[in-house]
Amino acid sequence: MSTKHPEASTPQAQNTTPVIKIRGAKQNNLKNLDLDIRTGELTVVTGLSGSGKSSLVFDTLYAEGQRRYVETFSPYARQFLDRMDRPHVDAIKGVPPAIAIDQTGVVRTSRSTVGTMTGANDLVKLLFAHNAHAFCPDCGEEVRHYTPQSIFESLEKEIAQLSEDTRVYLTFEVTAPTSLPIETVEAGLSAQGFSKILARRTTKKEIHLSVVLDRFKANRLVRERAIDAVEQGLEKGAGKIQVFLDNGDGKGEKLWHTYRQGFVCAHCDTTFREPMPSLFSFNSPLGACETCKGFGRVMSIDPNLVIPDPTLSLYQGAIRVASGGKTGQELQEDLMKGAYRMGVRVDVPYQDLTEEEKTWVWGGDKVWKAEPKHPSAGGRRWYGLDEFFGWLESHSYKMHIRVLLSRYRAYTPCPVCGGAHLKAEALNWRYGTAKSKAFVLANVKDASTVLFEPLHMKMSKEKYESLPGFHFYELTNLPVEVLHKFCLEMRPAADKEEAMVLDEVISRLSYLCDVGLGYLTLDRQSRTLSGGEVQRVNLTTALGTSLVNTLFVLDEPSIGLHPRDMDRVNSVMERLSRAGNTLVVVEHDPQVMLAADRLIDLGPNAGKYGGEIIFDGDTRSVLTANTETALYLSGKKRISRAHPKAVTKETLRLGIEGASEHNLKNIDVQIPLQRFVAVAGVSGAGKSTLIADVLVPAVDRQLKTGTSTPGAYKRLSGVLPTKLAFVDQSPIGRTTRGNPVSYVHAFDGIRYLFAETPEASVAKLSYKDFSFNSGEGRCPVCGGAGTEHVEMQFLSDVYLPCPACHGKRYRDSVLEVKITLRGKQYNIAEVLDLTVDEACELFSHVPNVMHGLRHLQSVGLGYLTLGQPLTTLSGGETQRLKLASHLADNFQGKATRAGTLFIFDEPTTGLHFKDIARLVNIFDSLVAMGHSVLVVEHNLDILNVADWVIELGPEGGEQGGYLMFEGTPDELVTQTTHTGRALHAWRETQEGRNTEAFFHFPDTNRALLPHPDEITVEGAREHNLQNLSVSIPHNEFTVITGPSGSGKSTLAFDIIFAEGQRRYLESLNAYARTMVQPPPLPDVDAVRGIPPSVAIEQRTSRGGLRSTVATMTEIYHFLRLIFGKLGTQYCPDCHVDSTSRTEDEIAQIVLDRWPKKKVELWLPLAHHRKGSFKTVFAHYQKLGLNEFLIDGVRENLLGKTNHSLVLRVEHDVSVCLGTMSTGNKEELKREITKALSMSEERAIFVCAANQDSNGVYLSTRSSCPSCQRSFAALDPKLFSYNSPVGTCPTCSGYGILTDAIKKAQKAEETLYNEEVSSSDDSNGMDNLCPTCHGQRLNEVALAVLWKKHNIAEFGAMTINEMLDFFSDLKLTPRETAIAGDAIKEIVSRLHFLQEVGLNYLTLDRSAPTLSGGEAQRIRLAAQLGSNLRGACYVLDEPTIGLHPRDNQMLLNVIETLTHKGNTLLVVEHDEDTIRRAGHIIDIGPGAGTLGGKLVAEGSLKEVMGNKNSITGKFLKNPLLHTGEPDHAYQKGVDSHLEVIAPKLRNLKIDDLEIPLGKLVVMTGVSGSGKSTLMHEILYKNLAPVSTLKKGQTLTWHHCQEINGWEKIRRVLHVDQTPIGKTPRSCPATYVGFYEAIRDLFAGLPESQARGYDARRFTFNLAGGRCEECGGQGFKVLAMNFLPDVKVECDVCHGSRFNPETLAVTWREHNIGDILRLSVNDAVDLFESHPSIARPLKLMQDVGLGYLKLGQPSPTLSGGEAQRLKLVTELAKVKDTPTRPTRLRTSLGTVYVLDEPTVGLHMNDVAKLIDVLKRLVANGNTVVVIEHNLDVMAEADWIIDLGPEAGSQGGQLCGEGTPKAISELPTHTGVALKIFLQEHRPKRSASKKKSSEV
Question: pTM for this structure?
């Protein structure tokens, strides 16, 4: 039963609001809770510290939401995403994707900053990339972007100053090899119309010609003509033109100006790269400083570490490195001698030396400018500390030198970038105006803190300071609140695009200001933030992501916040919930609690006494409840002190004067001693700086208890405390070995009590033996942990009670020692099980134990057990435990003199009111005993009871650091400071006078606020999208359709999915974001209402030969894990249990088998080993061991020397170690341990005395007791096909053995299925490995059993069989603990496979043997089983490869996602799917540049009614079919292939005819055997026909024979395997027409003039290609600690060729432009070139008109690759002169195609049908595996396989014309009949297609 406290109330759930249902939550101390959490609301969970809040919210709710969403990522990505453990709960339903905003994820990497965490940096980078201006670092002038227009304007301005008669010549430079005759060059130029060469310049290899473009008189410059000339010159001259002048002085033309295109400084002729966002990223290799890799700092020698105490003189050892060791002594001697010689003072403090003397200390004699005082003094020259450390660096290959250097190294600013992180070129760009810069400088106190002059700048300082705006580093170093104002200042003058980015920046910055973080900078490193600051930054990040339908889980967002800022945090959380998100917050702050929609209070107490819901209701009604929380909130209970002490003039004070560190404004503060003092102020006011950075190290140094350097201050004054104890926010060490009693140092006293007992003395046990962390007393099996740690890899690790000590941590001998407490005996384990309260009662008479336990009790941790692992404590419990530890260390009773100063940094973190009350009592007791308590705190209850309050402010950051108030709390409430007003309001609330003054209850109409109900995309311009705006309704089934290449996938995947996933990933830590690499920001104005997204993309590759159904679904991963942890190793040879055992387990086996009997221990020496063993016998005889067992015969060798055996015979030899009784258990264990230590194999043989024939072989290693073969410990890798540990050595894990595999094994390469299918072994897939018989694993792996099965036998099960197995499975508790989660994962995946109709598959079915439909459904099953709510699922053509029957089944499955509250977005062409959708988006109207527009949107009816929608037209007027063939086939009469008795896999056909010269469609449900018949039998048997020589015949595989093959000339298989594996392959090169294009360019006059041949225009050869990127168009940049990055080549800008090659143009296109053309555009361009135009037209005909000619082949889908192959073959066929539209080919070609309609729009399907019919019309045979009903209806003959899939398929269900098949009751017949009826032509238009299409 679920547990709910009697006082708990339950609000009435609104039926209209979806809920998250939690049932049976039992995580940690939760008492079987049942709970419904309404989505779209803010729910706060509170309660006493340790009551179970985090267990419910984080370990249960968040863990499940995060785990389910992370499961949708790839296995590679999941390893970086810290998938949460499966919680201990019966069920959780309706959980959305979850994001945690807690304080545990503090970032440690220096690459993470506030800017990167919030995403603001990405937006600022966009501003710089698009709106910044460059300034030359040398002269300071603005860098202009020179275009033909701006070059003309500059030229016009310059020419205006010339005399009117001056002639101006515009020229471009041509470079040609000197080997080319100049006449040829001139002839080529002349052919292009360039007849005048103005200048010639010859080098050794090249000649440079200045060719005249045009000429003008200075007074007759014609604008249009000049601009045309400039454009032409830039194109011909590789981006450069020259201007010559002839002023008529008879000296001829002289070079006057050179202009370059791009960003150029006109004064220095320096070029600058065009900016891109990555140039301004220190996490990108493009922008990061190469010296520091973007960190901004480097490791170097720190002078402060070398000279830590500058008050010492050189003689006293100020230089630390010179104070020890031989090297240090030599250094000190050289220093002293050198100082004497040069007159450097050695008897004054180092800090008092002159700058010249200090320079000498570091630089040595070479920098000393004065004359030596004692030039004749002995000793070598002083080399200086710099040279000394340089010498050490040169010897750092030695370990001790590296250790020495590490003591003096520290991070210092990078010497190249100066700490700016970025390359110099990035800092040349500035954003902003002079006005905005002046505005910023007026808002900061010190301009020098804002301006940062980069080190590479050569301009004057005055010039630099006059530059407008800021560079990136300056801007990101502005306080957020100042940067926010700067952006607002820039906003009015911004254009549309700039304003859009600025608005987003302003929004994110305002979020930071809203949560009180306006004092931070974007460049502030995340690792320097406090836990509260990190959480608030993450909160603003979550708000900035604009996600919806997401579960946000927060852990005390109020931590570190002043009450003034609490309403800001509440408003941020309210905005998140209003956006349609669900927030669940763990919180103790009253302002946050009562601002929630719902409050859940857990209790009634902590630990095992908590875990119940004691209140559940709205926040107003809690004030009338009777829980501890309610009583404090209502003021019925208040926190007070028993002994407050007034501060008087006589009160001792500690003063700190002139504190000016960070933002402190030179303040003087007086801290009363022996009082309770609180330091308050808003976040960032300087509290921690004053106390932690200045006061604590300053007092430590005065007390000589610390060496840390304090922050800037002048002096300490007043009275120093006798001792200082500082309790900060640093976490405690949390390991399973740590526990409360050890943490407060009370365990030592308990151990001594046990060690002093008589039993311990007899057993010779010391106090060390009672430690479970060291010594001999701890359990040897678990090492004192008490648990067995089972690592579960990708599942949560399992901790089980140790099987040896049963969780007690100690050996039995230690547990037998007991002490008597209050008349009862306890062993050490029983003491550790006591609670603190119980232990305090029992140990009240033991002072050294009670000292620590008393403090645990005083902080309210009496309910903890002494041995409870620290890992199980809550945040509040760890905070109080740390406090107790400090009290135990520093509390020594009543104070003497000033006493101890206890300083606490926010001690109320994670504490409930009741816990704070206990804390105040402790502080009160300390003060009462004469000690001082100083707390940095925001909690108003603490401030209210303090004796004295110090407030800093008034604001944070630069506006803080002032002393605002010093006085009592009563005086504070009269002030107008932020703290004073907050404390006054809290007092009013507590007294019941004005509740609303402090609490801000939620709006009662809150639930009525509308949530976003659609995903809105505005202004999408990614790829070919043309400013597209669409809306996608939430929780509905939406289809995006349109012609192939119209931009559907761009919208669905590159924008919607990418944004949904990127925004979720932005909430994760920087490491995860780096490794998973969130998708880049798409080019879109806005995406709103986007939930976290899940992509199920179309993968045409079915996986390699090692891929199986089990591996594709990850079921095999979980099986491997189970076998690795629970499997039993059997010997492959002897088939006996060979499991390894511990020493204790071995002893127990002996005791159980021979109780209280004498046994003999034998040490095995050899097993089946050849040798004489002479030395072995002699060795053991010296040890006094003479009893041997030789080849099964017992022999006593006493007195026999030099005994030996036959050398060349195998022997078994053992030696007897002795006889002993099993009655003494401890002695037996010791002897067994000793015997095992003597054996290399860690093995012994034990038998009853004198009965060696009936013994047992036992080993701590896994080994066979019969043959003594040893085995490694079980590991999941042993069962992997891809790991050499487990794979079969013969077949390498493929399960088959072919020539191709043997070849790959020799080359040590991995083989893929397409490589086998193309190998010469056509029957390779079925050549089972003779060693493993297809089971893929080696004999050791196959000999591991679990539940009487090896892992291969599990793989041989079908889905149904395995489900039956697990439903009947009985597990032990240990097995359940280890394998429970893995089995749940397996069963859930099996159920989904069953749901998508794949129950007939076996798990070991190889991926290449799956049909396309089966592979597609497996991928869906692997992805859709996450059972999320609120996600957006994006699917890419899920119906590919599916029969119409299976199509409906799949649509039913995926449509259930919308019923669970998810948004379903499907890219699809399938008519059934489109008609099923609730919302349709049609993109078009064409492909490529002709697409990307919204053609139609809405319901099916609305799309069909849209006249512009080609999809709507086809839906309204689809292709019409009669079902009658164009080329009728008469069975048994016309030519045909006859396949007799095909038998492979599930095929059960006796005889099959395949017509020749016809369009034949082979169809049937997925898995019915189509691919097996088509590929494995028909194609593989007939493939060799084209290579047969005269007289040769074919051999048959998997069939009796195939008749009629003599009539065919060749068989061509056009499948969907990739056409190229590198980006260098593209459609133009694959189809073959690129060679004609190269010849065309090579024949141009300009090419001839430059000496270019066709090789010049290939991107694969040097000469013409861009050498910067090697002709790839992009570069791969590597960077430390980050993944490689692909960026567009900044030289050729993706065109692949160098500028000289690109200067050659044809019809205004260079060769780079040609490769960027789409097929549709290229058809028109090459219309007059048939050899190029014809294959392009064919690509158009098969629906590939949208492809780019240079598109890399790896980016093509399987369907696109298949159609390209088809085009390649068609292009080889030449048109006849008389019938140009009709194809002619070699007689009798059989084309075998596999689903060629994949990815085709209905319009493109019609084109494809026409192409296939044209092939048939030319006498060819086309055999197609197809499910498309349009193709079926146009077939000449249909072969239908079935009736079902798997073992129920493989039969011939029907053959005949489409009309004949439609009359059959098969799945195909039923679907085809309905289809033909719906697509029947009108009587007047028989056999015609729709006229509208």
Answer: 0.75
